[in-house]
Amino acid sequence: MAFSTRLLSKSRQLYGSQAIHAIPVRFYAKEAAPPGPPLKGDQMLKNIFLEVKKKFETALGILRKEKIIIDPDDPAAVSQYAKVMKTVREKADLFSESQRIQYTVQTRTRDIPDARTYLLTLKDIRIKRGLTDELGAEAMMMDALDKVEKEIKKPLMRDDKKSMALLNAEFDKINKKLGIRKEDFPKYEEQLELKIAKAQLDELKKDALEAMETQKKRCVVG
């Protein structure tokens, strides 16, 4: 059980730059928060606890049954581990890593009225998650915004559909230049999951070696 629990704790945010920049256009447009009946504090906490407990137990149940080879240098082992973790997410109804990013973007930007603050918030999310902008997409996006705002002669607001269409057209040009295609999003996510799987196996291997070394020292002392 200790090993299975450790696997779950290794979901670190190790993403490629496409994870932030390959976000569907609809996330740039301002959307109203979904309505929902209010819950009392105690009942809300109870529901959250029960939901988390259920997901955790489901994930542990799957991990106990799966054979995992801790070899980050073996592509087959990395692929198998990625498949296991994907099964865990699907069965336990957990977010994938790219879905987590999209959810964070949605919740943090929902009430932002203008495009510039939106893009700066996107940059802040990237930095705080330890992501790198290897493609230089952020600078291109800000240049595109500058171009549109110069054309419309005012700050671009996200509810200005006509002007937002101009910005989205510029973003499409950027995606084309960087080789990012909407139809390739599933491939990007698969590549992302393999990178994460390898990184997590690296961490598990490091933990295992440290545990073995600690045990050896104890045996020598004993």
Automatic annotation (TrEMBL):
<keyword id="KW-0175">Coiled coil</keyword>
<dbReference type="Pfam" id="PF15704">
    <property type="entry name" value="Mt_ATP_synt"/>
</dbReference>
<dbReference type="InterPro" id="IPR031432">
    <property type="entry name" value="MGP1"/>
</dbReference>
<dbReference type="GO" id="GO:0009555">
    <property type="term" value="P:pollen development"/>
</dbReference>
<protein>
    <submittedName>
        <fullName>Probable ATP synthase 24 kDa subunit, mitochondrial isoform X2</fullName>
    </submittedName>
</protein>
<feature type="coiled-coil region">
    <location>
        <begin position="187"/>
        <end position="218"/>
    </location>
</feature>
